[in-house]
Every structure is written in C-alpha cells, then in structure tokens.
Amino acid sequence: MHIEEFNFDLPDDLVAQYPAERRDASRLMALDRQNGGVEHLLFADIVERLRPEDVLVLNETRVVRARLRGHKERTGGRVELLLLRRDPKDGTWLALARPLRGLQSGDWIQLDRGSWRLKVVGRVGDRIRLRMPADAHGGAVTDCADPTGHASVLSMEQEAGDIPLPPYIRRAPESIDSDRYQTVFATTDGSIAAPTAGLHFTEQLLTAVRDRGVGVERLLLHVGPGTFEPVRTEDPRQHQLEAEFYRVSATTANCIAERRRAGGRCIAVGTTTVRTLETCAMEGEVRAGEGWTDLLICPPHEFNVVDAMVTNFHLPRSSLLLLVSALAGQQPLLAAYQLAVAERYRFYSYGDAMFIH
C-alpha cells in the first residue's frame, strides 16, 4: 500500500468556501458498498434511506473559539495561536503558534481583545506551552476534569477568540460561521474543528428520522489538529494519528447493541464517530467508557460495529480518506470521487455529503 494510491485531482473552485443556503439543502451521493452503485440525492432524502430498526450515532462535540490573536509584549511582534488542550500533569496548555520562530520561554502574549495575557513556558516540537495564570476574575486556572477544556479558558476564548476555520477555507471567519460551523446538536465544548458530516442535519430532519423509528444516539470525540494532518509516510499504515479525547455513555452503547441484535444498522455520522465506535468495539459490541484514541483506520479494516456512515468529501492523502476507503472499498470510493468532481459536488467542511451504505 502506498499513500499515492489515495491521491486525486480536485479543482480549487470545488472547495466550498461557504455553507449551502440551508443545512439540509446540500447534495448527497449515496454509495452502495456492495456493488459500487451511486445515487445523486439531496441531503434531506437521507431520511428515506434509513430503516426503522437502524440507529444513527452523532458526535455532540462543540467547536470552541480557539484561534487567538495578539502580540508579544517584549517586541510587539504579532502572534496567532490555536489553543489545543490542557496538559493535566502541569496545567499548561499546548498551542500552535504562527510565527513559531522568535517565541521564547518567558514571553508574555497580550491578546487583542480583553485583558488576557498568556505566558510562554516552553516548547514541545512544533507546539508551545502556555500558562494562563488567572481567569477573568483573578482565580488561578488549575484543576480540570475534562483535559480538553476549562471554564475559565472557555470564557477567554469566547471573549478573545475566533472560530478556527480550516486552512482550505481561504477567508476570515464571518458571523455566519458562528452558527453554521457548529452542528445543531453540539453540546460539549472542546473541538478545534467541527465534525462536519453532522453540519447537514437540522432539528426538523432529526425529528423526521426519529419519527421514522430510527434510534438517534450521541457520543463525544473532541476533534484535534490531527484531522488536518496529511499522511507523510509512504506506507499510510505507518502514519501516527494524534490522540483525541472521547466518551461513550452506557445508554448509547446499549442502544447500538440492541438495534444491531434486532437486525438494524449502526450508522455513524462522521469519521470521528466511526473512530470512537471502533475504538470501543469488542466482539461486535460497543463498550461504554472514555479516554484517548489514536486509532488509525485504513484498508483493510474489519469493522466491528459500524455498518454505514454519513461523511463529507475529504482531502487527498488524508487519514480521513483512508478511513472512508476502508468502509467503502478503495476503488469504489475513488471512482465515486472522480464522479463527484465530474458532477461538481462541493468538497470538504462546507461541502456536500456521502452516504456509504
């Protein structure tokens, strides 16, 4: 296996820069994983493709305003940060910084909005370590039950941060992104990127899914920077994914098991949901729990619980494309991508969707 087998040409104008007029108005390509057959639909048509005995599983993570801009107090030089997560061992926060060169341990960064000051206390590879000595009310930022978030830091991000749009959206965040780069079922702060397959669902569409008899369950995986990392190893199986925090409740695990035993399908909405379910799958069933997963799914992978999935169109040479290829089959998927380009589907986060069934 070679990573170039998962490359394809994509015209720049097919990379969606804005969402569709309505969430459920995106196009939907339905791909039959058994025979490679393709249907061209609207996303709202997915309801008719679900069976009453199925269970639809959503990722309820919420995108935080993790992109921060400010200046170094020592030199006045501009700095842009992407705050990633808290290290529970010492309370520091890992962040990507641009430019990285010139940042020194001991530097203070004054953010553009609010009175927030962040101190650089070290560096780990291409990340810096930051200490936030006080919250807006003067209290120390110390304990954190969830290592991906803290109330004081979330307050800082809300006041001083921007929505961290992915790099292939070549514009500054706008007011529309505060709503549309967030799923309607997002409840738990902690991601630096949206689980984009879920962006197509509306409350009305989810009600229609439930009215059909389909189970709708939730789990949590906070999306980290690894979602944008290209696979740089020639053999994609050697790629190392950065671990992400997940949580699966007993209610969700039990519902999936009951639905599948009754002949229903477990339909994962998004690659993050697939990775979480397969991380927790043992002997064909999902086990409740929480932790960190760095599971890389690529062909050939024997899926334990995921029978079908809803997903967007992904970047070439990416771990996301590898995962989708493992479910759909490499050749059928790449043929479907060629067809999507020819039919001018919109790609990536704000683009159209696939239903692999």
Write up this protein.
It contains eight helices and 20 strands. The strands form four sheets. A nine-stranded mixed β-sheet has the order 2-1-20-19-15-3-13-14-18. It has a six-stranded antiparallel β-barrel with strand order 5-6-7-10-9-8. A hairpin with a 6-residue loop joins strand 1 (27-31) and strand 2. The protein has helices spanning 46-49, 151-160, 175-180, 203-211, 250-261, 271-279, 319-328, 330-342; strands spanning 27-31, 38-42, 55-59, 61-63, 67-72, 78-86, 93-98, 108-111, 117-124, 127-131, 161-162, 188-191, 215-221, 244-248, 266-269, 281-282, 285-286, 289-293, 308-312, 353-356. It starts with 26 loop residues before the first strand and ends with a strand. Helices cover 20% and strands 27% of the residues. The protein is globular, with a radius of gyration of 21 Å. With 357 residues, the protein is α+β, with helices and mostly antiparallel strands. It folds into two domains: 3-63 and 178-356, QueA-like (3-Layer(aba) Sandwich), CATH 3.40.1780; 67-162, Thrombin, subunit H. Residues 135-148 have low confidence and may be disordered.
